[in-house]
Amino acid sequence: MNSSLLKNKALVIATTVYWFLLLYIVAAQVFWYIELQRQNRQMTAYKLIELKTDDPAFHARLNKIKKEEQVKTAQYIGEGAIFLLFTLVGAVFVYRAVRRQFRLSQQQQNFMMAITHELKTPIAVTKLNLETLKKHKLDDQRQQKLLQMTLQETERLNSLANNILISSQLETGGYQSAKEEVDVSDLATGCIQDFKHRFPERTWNSAIEKNIITNGDLLLLQIMVNNLLENAIKYSPEETAISIQLKKHPRFVELNVIDEGLGIPDDEKKKVFDRFYRMGNEAIRKTQGTGLGLYLCSKIAAYHNAEIFVRDNRPAGSNFTIHFKI
What we know:
Layout: H1 2-50, H2 58-135, H3 140-172, E1 179-183, H4 184-198, E2 203-208, E3 213-217, H5 218-234, E4 241-248, E5 252-258, H6 293-303, E6 306-312, E7 318-325
Parallel strand pairs: 2-4
Antiparallel strand pairs: 1-3, 4-5, 5-7, 6-7
C-alpha cells in the first residue's frame, strides 16, 4: 500500500511539473510573439517618420512599409503557430508516453504481487497435503480428497507456467508454430471433461457440435479454452452453471464460454484483454489471477486469425465468444 501511495504521489508531482513546464513554454512563445510584434510596429513607425510627404514616391514607399509590416506579422504568426503546434503535439505524445509508462509500471507491480501469491498458494497447499498423507493414516475417501486437491493445485502451477512461457514467446515472436488440422470438437469436449473431473461440485453445460475441424496449433487452442474456463470459474459463484458451446456457421466457427457471475462493465470489456490488466484493486481483490489469461487468449486468437470479444450473458454473467474464420 505504501509503495502504491508513493507511486501515486510521484505521478502527481511529475504531472504537476510537466504541466508547469508546458505552460511556461507556451507563455514564452506568446511573449516572444508579442515582443516581435512590438518591434515590428516600432520599426514601421521609425520608417514612417523618415518619410517625407513631398517625396514624389511617398505613396509607393508608404505602401511598401505597410506591406513589409504585414509580411513580418504573417511571418511571426506562421512561425509562432508552427512552434506552438509542434510543442502541443510533442506535449501530447510525451504526456501519453509518461502516463503509459506509469500505468505499465503499476500493472507490472500488480503482476508481481499476483504471481507471488499464485506461486506460493499451490505450493503451500501441496506441501501441506503431502505432509498430511505422510504423517497420518487416513481412510481412502480422505486420501482421495487430498490427492484431488493436490492435483488441482499442481494443475494450477502448470497452467500458470504455460501462460507465462507462451505469452512471452508470442510477445517476442519466439513461439515455434505447429499448425495442423485440429478437431475443435474433440478439443472442447476434452477440456470440459477435464474441468468436470477437477471441479465436480460445479454445474457444467456443453453443446458441442461434432467434427468441427480448423487449422491451428493444438497446444495454443487448448490453453485458450482452458483459460476461458478458468476465468469463468474464478468470476462466478459455485452454485451457478458454466456453459461451453461450439457450433459451425456458414462463414465461421463460434466458440462460447458462458458464466453466470457478476459480468463485466461496458468500459472494461476491451481492457480485460490487455496484458496484466485486472479489474479492481490488487490489494483488495479476492479472486486469484495474474492478468495474463485473457491477454493470452487474445494473442492466441490473433495468432489463428480469429476474433475474440465479450458480451453480457442474460440475466447475469459474461459470454466470451471466439469466431474462427473458415
